[in-house]
Automatic annotation (TrEMBL):
Swiss-Prot/TrEMBL keywords: Cell cycle, Cell division, Centromere, Chromosome, Cytoplasm, Cytoskeleton, Kinetochore, Microtubule, Mitosis, Nucleus
Xref: InterPro entries: DASH_Dad1 (IPR013958)
Cellular localisation: Chromosome, Centromere, Kinetochore; Cytoplasm, Cytoskeleton, Spindle; Nucleus
Name of the protein in its database record: DASH complex subunit DAD1
Length: 101
């Protein structure tokens, strides 16, 4: 361990090589870039949360429009045809019963 401590103290006492200077500069740039990335990710997260909040506020409106769409999608003649068919059958059956008597 004493040799390791001596090499560290020797490195601290002497000037840094161009490689070490460049490495430290690049490490500093990388650290700043990571901080910017982290800040941008946090900003994106807040924006996504805001979008989700706005989307959730429209859920009741969406449900209402879906209900309206389902009502409008039903064929209006379908209900009349079923009702007339039932009534028509009843009338037809009652006429047959009258004829048979």
């Amino acid at each position: 361990m004493s040799m390791h401590q001596r090499s560290l103290s020797a490195a601290a006492g002497r000037e840094k090589t161009p490689f070490e200077q460049q490495r430290e500069a690049l490490i500093g740039e990388i650290a700043m870039s990571f901080e910017q990335v982290l800040a941008n990710i946090n900003k994106l997260n807040r924006s996504l949360e805001a979008v989700i909040t706005v989307g959730n506020e429209f859920s009741s409106v969406e449900a209402l429009w879906s209900q309206f769409e389902n009502v409008m999608a039903k064929d209006p003649d379908e209900g009349k045809a079923e009702g007339e068919g039932s009534d028509g059958e009843r009338e037809h059956n009652s006429k047959r019963e009258d004829e048979n008597r």
